Every structure is written in structure tokens, then in C-alpha cells.
Amino acid sequence: MAVAIRLSRGGNKRRPYYRIVVSDTRSPRDGKYLEQIGTYNPLLAKDDAARVKFDEDRVRYWLGVGAQATDRVARFLDAAGIKERAPRNNPKKAEPGEKAKERAEERAAKAAEAEEAAKAAAEAPAEEAPAEDVAAETPTEEVTSVSSEEPAEGGEEVVEQAIEEQAAEEAPAEEAAAAEGSEEKTEG
Known about the structure:
Blueprint: E1 3-12, E2 15-24, E3 35-40, E4 52-54, H1 56-65, E5 68-69, H2 71-80, H3 98-123, H4 131-137, H5 155-187
Parallel strand pairs: 1-5
Antiparallel strand pairs: 1-2, 2-3, 3-4
């Protein structure tokens, strides 16, 4: 029969309370146990003396008989100075998984492509056209975006004219729609 010193959960939902018990390893976690040797209340402060309580004599007896403590109980026993616990080291614990690595590589590749495209655009000679020709070639509906760069000479005036023309085109259409709506009301 293998014997373990482990925690047995009690308490309510969201209000856990544990007994430190000695039980057969084949019995359920909260089931039958051989002896209760202490308690653990995780809701208390870490420096509170009542957080972890156990009977040292009984713990030493069961360890002497061959009982194995679970990892959590071994931490309690190590803190009390009863049984030294070897520290564990898992260097791969914080390493991201395979899919996360793939996503990071894809993001890095996209960023590199965007950076290359930006360099190529900056290196290419910019063909500058007079501002009046640009305004004549572009329709007024597409002149809604504003560049963060400084406009060319007379560029502000062209943008203002385009906005005024667009507003002038929309105003008669709105008036016509309102006139049709009022005619329908008078007929009905």
C-alpha cells in the first residue's frame, strides 16, 4: 500500500479549505483517509500563522514510515524545516509554443516587407506635378483624404475649392428630395 501526505479539499465554492491528510494513493482526493495531520487555509494572508498548521510529530512519523508528500505539501514541509525539498527548474516553461513562434515569424516577415516597400518608395524619385494639373485630373469626390505632408503651393486653395464644389453639388440633390417628399404628403 502506497501512502501519501496530501491535501483534501473542503469548504464552499470559491471558499476553499484544505485538510492535510495521510491517505492511500488509490483513494479519491476528498475521500477516505487514514489520518488528518493538519490544515491549510489559502484565504488567509501568507504571513498568518494559522494559514498552514500541522502536527510535526505525526508528519515525521509518516515520513519515516515511507509516506510521500505531494508537491504542495512538500513546499509546506520545506518552509517549516521538516523535510528539504529540491527546487525544480523548468527552463522551457516561459518559452512560447510552436504556433506562437510561427505567428511571430509571420509578423516579422510582414514587417520586413513593409519596411522594404517604404525604403523603395523613399528612394524612388518623386515625380512632382504642378498643383493645378493635379486638381484638374482628380475628381472632386476623391479629394476627401488629407495628406500628413505639407501641401504643394496653392494646394490648400485647391482642396477648399473641391470641398465647396462637392457641397454645392449635394445641396440641390437634397432640396429636390425634400420637395418630392412634401409633394407626396399634399397628395395623400
